[in-house]
Amino acid sequence: MVSGVLLTDASIHVYWLTGATWPARDPHSLSLAVLNVDVPFTPPVLVPLVVSLVGAAACVWLSTRAVPGSWGRIAAAGTYAVAAGLLVRGAAGLVWSLGIGADRAMPFYWLNLVLYTPLCLALGTAALLVARDGARGSVPPGARRRPPSPRRMADFLRDR
Prior knowledge:
The chain is an all-alpha fold.
């Protein structure tokens, strides 16, 4: 779920790379509705966001798989970072929902209150659970983890 939402967000940013401004009428309105500040929706701004969102989606997706070794640890660390980023954004959204730093008459205030903040808090919590489960070594349904070899198990038990 988290990966899908992140990829959808990346797709929207790719759409904006074409110069389209939906759902706003112009780039200025889009920037104010999405960010609450006037920022250009240009390739130097959007391309790094798209790359970050795709990388974040990959980390979360890999964390839901039984990926052994370094790649599994990298995916878990990336998923923790995704969770932290989303939860920090959600916390900032709670502050903005109090009217601090956001004008209640602007579209951003209402989009933040109804969409951005709840989505960030829900996705951040979900990503945190995915990262935690991956760090504990849980295996998702349908995934198969190789059982430990008898020799490695014997070495483990002997060292205890």
